[in-house]
Design a protein that fits this description.
Elements lengths: L1 H6 L3 H17 L4 E9 L16 H14 L4 E5 L13 H5 L6 E4 L9 E4 L3 E8 L6 E9 L2 E9 L7 H12 L4 E7 L4 H9 L3 E2 L25 E5 L3 E7 L13 E7 L2
Parallel strand pairs: 1-2, 7-8
Antiparallel strand pairs: 1-12, 2-4, 3-4, 5-6, 6-7, 8-10, 9-10, 11-12
């Protein structure tokens, strides 16, 4: 009995120590880990308007669906999406390729070349369009709530015209600064010096960040041409980026390659 009484005063100390360990372990774990991709799908026609042009429509559709499914994505951010998959406009691309896989799908305005979308297994809300400094180009935004945190998801397409690079990247940075938590991805269409302005603003980059550069402008890969690293995933300081790749897919390899990464959201 005396031995038991000897240890009783230590119990509050031990309890506090164990609680502290649990808090440290919780803080060392991300709130969420996500597999994310951004892909300029090039209107299913290697960057040209009109949808898929060949006659093997169903096999081509299946190749796209298989690739998207096989990536096991939590979040898919898309640019230059054609609302119809084929040249004859008989297949709704969203119904065929996204709705069977993802819980939530949202798109911005379908302009002549620009159509930015977000597909995810999460519940999202409050879709809005944020214009950039060109009347065709914009950011599609939605909110994703994780407990008391709101993560803003953005699919972006920046103008290809050189005269718009500075102003559009500056407008994008100004928009990113408004949000505590965000994941923004898409076709930035700008050279490295513009992209690095985003890094200098304090944000994480999949392309041009601590993991280096990844060529996504498919036809320029392996050449000395500029603007090879034009697709990117950008995150707020509290979302880390790892396991990055830009694989050839056989789907849009004359135009863009996808950029994939694993993201971890931290409190």
């Amino acid at each position: 009995m005396k031995r038991c009484l000897f240890f009783l005063p230590l119990l509050p100390v031990l309890a506090l120590f164990c609680a502290g360990l649990l808090v440290c372990q919780a803080e060392d774990q991300p709130i969420k880990t996500l597999r994310v991709a951004t892909y300029n799908t090039g209107h299913f026609n290697q960057g040209q308007l009109g949808g898929y042009q060949a006659e093997d429509v169903q096999p081509a559709l299946q190749r796209w669906k298989t690739w998207i499914t096989d990536q096991k994505l939590d979040l898919f951010l898309i640019q230059e999406w054609n609302s119809t998959f084929d040249k004859d406009k008989t297949i709704n691309a969203t119904d065929a390729l996204l709705n069977p896989i993802f819980k939530s799908v949202e798109f911005g305005t379908e302009n002549r070349y620009i159509h930015n979308g977000i597909a995810t297994h999460e519940t999202i809300s409050n879709k809005r369009i944020v214009p950039l400094t060109h009347d065709q180009y914009y950011i599609t935004q939605v909110d994703w709530k994780i407990g008391d945190i709101t993560v803003v998801l953005m699919s972006v397409h920046v103008p290809w015209q050189a005269k718009s690079h500075d102003s559009s990247i500056d407008a994008l940075i100004a928009e990113l600064k408004k949000h505590e938590y965000f994941i923004c991805a898409g076709d930035l269409n700008a050279p490295g010096e513009n992209i690095l302005k985003i890094k200098d603003a304090g944000f994480h980059l999949a392309n041009g960040g601590e993991h280096g550069w990844f060529c996504t402008a498919a036809k320029r890969c392996g050449t000395n041409e500029p603007k090879q690293n034009i697709d990117n995933i950008i995150t707020s300081k509290n979302i880390s980026i790892d396991q990055i790749s830009a694989p050839r897919t056989g789907l849009n390899d004359q135009d863009h390659l996808p950029l994939l990464a694993t993201l971890k959201i931290w409190r």
